[in-house]
């Protein structure tokens, strides 16, 4: 599996897409439910939430704020338990009712507000996973980290601290820090939120290059519908609480994607379809919020 | 700060020379000399309510008389040692206690109420009990300075641990860190900024309480000098003691800041 990562750094991108498709990373989410019950307040965050993600698929999930997207991601990541259903990763139980949630380097998260360790340099951040797991020596990890950083145009910043980098660079470092673990699934929780348009589009480009090169399964939460369509193979619309998958939009834009596609007829049609579906849920969420406040 | 960055690497004498002509230094110096000038004018009759306060020139003359005595320097040394003993002990006890309270819910449930009951008690109020409890005067004095810094450091460390962003711990765990590794490699470094803040505030408080501590006994100490000058009705001596404590506190804070910069290379840049 190390070879796969090495190749992707060295080889030409178009070739890699064909060669390096990871064989695993299929997620099966079956009738998952999550009820929060702090102090007797019964909040159903997820109910009967089912979806299938094939290995190497890029799935984006959209929906109103507070609908349970992050809850689902946290359950997949092993930060939270579920209260109904089960999740399988390549046929093996990942989260069930009987097991305690357990995070692991096979499905790493890139967090909404960023989670680079401020006291570690860029290279120390990137090599943290393989070194702490003991799967690489620090020297090996450093070599690999440098290679992967240069892949996303970050050659001369390895001794910088995260606080010295722009938000766009921080995100790239964070995605590399996740990918160096060679995870089966990459979980991205609104990673490009609050970025300006230019930084965001550059970040999209880097993410797509990495995706084409590694073929990892990606689960991507966002509020930005254009972003979802532009990046993903499949866009899922989640309902307001209790959250389940209401609609699936297959994105049949060819890869590699480029920005010209944003203006294409297909793109605009898909966007308007998605806007309708999300708007309906947003209105419901808003009304539910008003009822709760009253 | 941009200045400081370009200056690192230059010889020390060059850096000192550059600092002395820097805006930062000149502004600070203007404020100090302005204060002294106002004080001089006030004591000379500009402000009638200041008639009993000796002028800075009188104080400077008294200061000189103090500076040539061995007792003054012995006092500086003794006070510094007492402050350091109390301060270091407060770090050694307070940092682990704060980390423990922040990291372990059960431990916090046990210790926090007792801690909060003791925290408001002023260091001065501890003096009689301290004399009764500790075998020697020196330990009593160090204990009072300890009390001064201890509560501040614990509160800061506890606050620091409690406010570690959850995603940092989550990230470390998902990369495969064990609970022990999370504590030493994530919780501890994430708390260092709060530890340093606690140290900065704490070193100031230890000097604040040194007079209370040195009332206990001993013939030396800057607090003792000030207290004796007060008992003798020697106002310039009081002010010399006050200024000495101020200078000593300033120097100590600078030293803590150097330690803080060394502990936090990722923050030095800003």
In CATH, what is the class of the largest domain in chain B? Mainly Alpha
The average pLDDT score of chain A comes to 84
Q: Measure the end-to-end span of chain B.
A: 7 Å
Number of helices of chain A: 9
Task: Give Rg of chain B in angstroms.
Answer: 22 Å
Q: Name the chain pair whose interface involves the most residues.
A: A-B, 27 and 23 residues
> In terms of quaternary structure, what is this?
heterodimer
Provide a descriptive summary of the structure in words.
The N terminus of chain A is likely disordered. With 294 residues, chain A is an alpha/beta fold. Chain B has 270 residues and is mainly α. Chain B has 14 helices and no strands. The N terminus of chain B is likely disordered. The chains are: A alpha/beta (294), B mainly alpha (270). Chains A and B meet through strand 6 and helix 4 of A and helix 9, helix 10 and helix 14 of B.
Topology:
The complex is a heterodimer of chains A (294) and B (270).
Chain A (H helix, E strand, L loop, with lengths): L1 H9 L2 H7 L7 E10 L6 E11 L4 E5 L6 H9 L6 E6 L2 E4 L11 E4 L11 H12 L4 H14 L15 H13 L5 E5 L7 H18 L2 E5 L3 H7 L2 E5 L6 E6 L14 H29 L1
Parallel strand pairs in A: 3-8, 3-9, 6-7, 7-8
Antiparallel strand pairs in A: 1-2, 1-4, 4-5, 9-10
Helix pairs in contact in A: 2-7, 4-5, 4-6, 6-7, 8-9
Chain B lengths: L1 H6 L4 H9 L2 H24 L9 H12 L2 H34 L1 H14 L4 H11 L3 H26 L3 H9 L4 H30 L1 H5 L7 H10 L3 H29 L1 H4 L2
Helix pairs in contact in B: 4-13, 5-6, 5-8, 5-10, 5-12, 7-8, 8-10, 9-10, 10-13, 12-13
Would you kindly provide a brief summary of this structure?
By secondary structure, chain A is α/β, with parallel strands linked by helices.
């Amino acid at each position: 599996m190390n070879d796969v990562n090495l190749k992707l750094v060295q080889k030409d991108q178009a070739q890699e897409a064909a060669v390096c498709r990871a064989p695993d990373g299929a997620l099966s989410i079956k009738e998952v439910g999550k009820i929060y019950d702090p102090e007797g307040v019964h909040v159903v965050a997820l109910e009967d939430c089912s979806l299938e993600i094939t290995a190497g698929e890029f799935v984006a999930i959209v929906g109103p704020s507070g609908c349970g997207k992050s809850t689902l991601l946290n359950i997949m990541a092993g930060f939270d338990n579920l209260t109904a259903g089960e999740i399988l990763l390549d046929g093996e139980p990942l989260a069930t009712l009987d097991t305690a949630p357990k995070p692991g380097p096979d499905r790493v998260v890139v967090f909404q507000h960023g989670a680079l360790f401020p006291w570690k340099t860029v290279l120390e951040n990137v090599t943290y996973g393989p070194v702490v797991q003991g799967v690489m020596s620090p020297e090996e990890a450093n070599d690999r980290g440098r290679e992967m950083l240069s892949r996303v145009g970050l050659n001369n910043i390895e001794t910088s601290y995260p606080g010295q980098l722009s938000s766009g660079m921080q995100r790239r470092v964070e995605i590399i820090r996740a990918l160096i673990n060679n995870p089966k699934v990459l979980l991205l929780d609104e990673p490009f939120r609050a970025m300006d348009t230019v930084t965001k589009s550059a970040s999209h480009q880097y993410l797509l290059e990495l995706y084409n090169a590694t073929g990892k399964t990606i689960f991507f939460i966002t509020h930005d519908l254009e972003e979802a369509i532009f990046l993903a193979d499949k866009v899922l619309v989640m309902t307001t609480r209790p959250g389940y998958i209401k609609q699936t939009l297959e994105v049949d834009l060819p890869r590699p994607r480029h920005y010209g596609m944003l203006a294409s007829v297909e793109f605009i049609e898909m966007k308007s379809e998605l806007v309708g579906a999300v708007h309906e849920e947003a209105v419901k969420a808003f009304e539910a919020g008003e009822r709760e406040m009253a | 700060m941009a200045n400081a960055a370009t200056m690192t690497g230059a010889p020390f004498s060059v850096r000192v020379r550059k600092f002395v002509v820097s805006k930062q230094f000149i502004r600070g110096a203007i404020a100090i000399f302005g204060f002294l000038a106002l004080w001089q004018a006030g004591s000379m009759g500009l402000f009638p309510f200041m008639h009993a306060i000796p002028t800075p020139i009188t104080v400077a003359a008294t200061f000189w008389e103090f500076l040539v005595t061995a007792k003054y320097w012995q006092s500086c040394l003794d006070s510094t040692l007492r402050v350091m003993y109390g301060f270091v002990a407060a770090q050694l006890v307070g940092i682990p206690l704060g980390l423990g309270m922040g990291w372990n819910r059960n431990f916090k449930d046990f210790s926090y109420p007792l801690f909060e009951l003791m925290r408001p008690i002023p260091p001065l109020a501890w003096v009689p009990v301290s004399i009764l409890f500790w075998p020697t005067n020196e330990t009593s004095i160090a204990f009072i300075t300890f009390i001064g810094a201890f509560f501040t450091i614990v509160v800061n460390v506890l606050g620091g641990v409690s406010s570690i962003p959850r995603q940092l711990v989550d990230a470390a765990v998902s990369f495969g860190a064990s609970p022990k590794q999370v504590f030493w490699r994530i919780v501890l470094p994430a708390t260092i900024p709060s530890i340093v803040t606690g140290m900065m505030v704490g070193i100031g408080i230890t000097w604040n309480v040194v007079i209370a501590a040195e009332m206990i006994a001993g013939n030396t100490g800057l607090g003792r000098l000030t207290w004796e000058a007060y008992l003798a009705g020697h106002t310039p001596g009081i002010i010399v003691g006050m200024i000495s404590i101020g200078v000593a506190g300033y120097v100590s804070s600078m030293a803590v800041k150097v330690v803080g910069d060394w502990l936090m290379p990722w923050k030095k840049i800003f």
